[in-house]
Write a structure and sequence with these properties.
Structural class of chain B: alpha/beta
Distance between the termini of chain A: 55 Å
Helix content of chain A: 10-25%
Radius of gyration of chain B: 22 Å
Number of domains of chain A: 2
Oligomer: heterodimer
Number of helices of chain A: 2
Shape of chain B: globular
Largest sheet of chain B: 7 strands, mixed
Helix content of chain B: 10-25%
Distance between the termini of chain B: 57 Å
Strand content of chain B: 25-35%
Shape of chain A: elongated
Number of strands of chain B: 29
CATH topology of the largest domain in chain B: FAD/NAD(P)-binding domain
Strand order of the largest sheet of chain A: 10-7-8-12-11
Radius of gyration of chain A: 19 Å
CATH architecture of the largest domain in chain A: Roll
Number of strands of chain A: 12
Strand content of chain A: 25-35%
Chain lengths: 125, 421
Amino acid sequence: MESKTLTCINCPMGCQVTITYEMKDGRINEETMTVTGNTCLRGKTYAISEVTNPVRTVTGTVGLSNRELRVVPVKTKTPVPKDKVPDVAKALADVKVEAPVHIGDVVIKNVCGTGSDIVITDNIE
Amino acid sequence: MKRKAVIIGGGPAGLAAAVSLKDNGIEDVLILERGSSLGGILTQCIHNGFGLHTFKEELTGPEYAARFIEMAKERNVEALLNTMVVDISHDKVITCMSKDKGIFTIEAESVILAMGCRERPRGALNTPGYRPAGIYSAGTAQRFVNIEGKMPGKEVVILGSGDIGLIMARRMTLEGAKVKAVAEIMPYSGGLKRNIVQCLDDFGIPLKLSTTVVDIKGKDRVESVTLAKVDDKMTPIPGTEEVIPCDTLLLSCGLLPENELSDKMGVKLSPVTGGPIVDESLNTNIPGVFACGNVLHVHDLVDYVSEEATLAGKFAAEYIKEGERPINGPEFKIETGKGVRYTVPVTVHPDRAPELTTVRFRVGNVYKDPEICVYMGDKCVLRRKKQICAPGEMEQVIIKKADLKNLKDGEKIVVCLENVL
């Protein structure tokens, strides 16, 4: 059995959640798993996902080819695997789009093979 | 020019107040905004995590702002951009200036203060050392990176573990900089837990508690900073110095409500929060002048700013519709008991209070397993167990009008922590 104590990040409570688990065929054996310290179900879900498939939403910026001193913010539309975060950040480095741009516009499809798209998060006319 | 409701500031507080005024039947609503766009600081807070309470989804700052900008547009809220308010008189005459209009005045029936806050600058920190280039407040660096697309440096030390500093530690790392350490003078971080996990732990950035900057080296550009441990009186301990080579020092050492205008117009300020002293209606000591958002007290979540500003808008609408509401009944003060640094509001009028009044507060230290208590006179009307209370996370209690009505002359309301050392 392995044990990990994590700070739950689902809300400002920041519960210290301890998960004790063993892996079976690449998955957590849910029958023997114990989760303590969480004050709601989200804490349990978070602890399980953090030890099996931790994900993060990546936010950053891309350039605007037709604006001076102005970049536009973007994010991954859905969270991506945590170990892909640096790759996704690098993939944004030299990207430029042309204004106007609007919230939800897709900049990169399936970024770094994560299945998530990079989308614009601000309106620039 | 005479206007019904004038809101100073077009950030999250100002926008929510404007929407609320419209929804409560006030047609004539004007926002005065010094920047070139609405949304305030949210436009540079490009990380996600906003709106979980308000919209039940995780948005980035600009997305959250866009929702409120859209709501304001739908309701035809008028906004004057690039317009700086330079003075508000006690009788609510607002002097503004803009490039287009020059200097002009507005007579307001009601004023909503929503100017937000600003960062504590280096000059207020008494940090020794040279004054080279490369020292920025975290929010300034955030603007450079997220709006202008310019990196302020490559090797970074961050002083202070406020949320903006933590967010910038991750942001600078993802943009290719090396963030060497975050130093925090207190024995605990003032930032939200999730930010410590996702911005520092995820990237292996050390958080050095009870540590401060004792020297900054470099004449033209920062070359290194010296960190040292501090004792329980926050005095650096000789022999614990550590020199960290870097080209940039970011300061994330607290936010200060921006109340020069309020002070000048005669609004009474709290020495603890730096924000106006308000009653349950978020009214300052001047009838018809309301305050909400970070100008009132610094929040950690924008959702609560929107909630508070929505209330301020509602109360301002009532004020405009009914005229100055005479306070017939008594006024009670909310006092801070053990562990509690301040409350907002500070006073309550039971006759005027809504059915439920949210009292927000901060504690002064980290407390394990405390009970949050509210006393009215001798009677404990609320007791709630918590796993933890920390200064970085705002707390709230909700008090009932029914309980307020039972208060007798001379009795006090006390918000305090129990079961703590």
